[in-house]
Amino acid sequence: MNLVAENEIKAPESSIARRRSLANPSALGYGGFAATLMTLSLSGMGFRSISNQSVFVANLCFLAGVGLLVSAQWEMVRGNTFDYTVLGAFALYYGGYGVLLLPSSGVLESYQGQTADYHNAFGIYLLVWSILNLFFFIASLPTGAPNIVVYGALELSYIFNCIGHFVRADGNILTSMKLMKVGGAFGFVSSLAGFYMLGHELCRDVLPFRFPVYNTSRLASVVKSSEHSN
Fold first, then answer.
1. Residue 179 maps to a domain
2. Which domain holds residue 182?
3. 208 band by pLDDT with thresholds 50, 70 and 90
4. Exposure class string for 127-154: b at 16+ Cβ within 10 A, else e
């Protein structure tokens, strides 16, 4: 009897210890996402008149590509479907975007420069990603205000950049540049929200205070209750 009771007491303690030994992968995910997006957004806004983004390949392929993919796998272990899907998708997106910027990939050369065909293709590429990110935005609504800003601002960034490429393909260069700057500005806002979430994930483990995330999960419960009542 005593042996059984002792085992029943120790088993939960060992499982709790195993859970506590797992680090929080969200911090790396938010950090890699925000840092990579901010560099691209600053360039898109025309900061320091950067036109060649090849140096960003390091962030795109490693910090975001590898870092977010690693974080995604651990979010899967923790059972977080939303975080796993988002981190995994953006890891592959950023890694693929980095490949597009590599001169050795030959993508730009295959279009013989930034032709109308190139900008139309890039516009479609961003259009499809805006559709995918729209689902991420909808799924983020019950998660918290900063997350909503991350995906909401990113959605607008995709849309403006998509339109900018289509307009550039039609030959309206000045209008295209203005649209892409607006897209870069929304991307910058998204990256700031990502850094805010990075602070939230880090500080709650090591500091006595937390960055408030303004939990919006009640909105989902209100919607569900209204649906049941109907």
1. yes
2. 25-215
3. confident
4. bebbeebeebbeebbbbbebbbbbbbbb
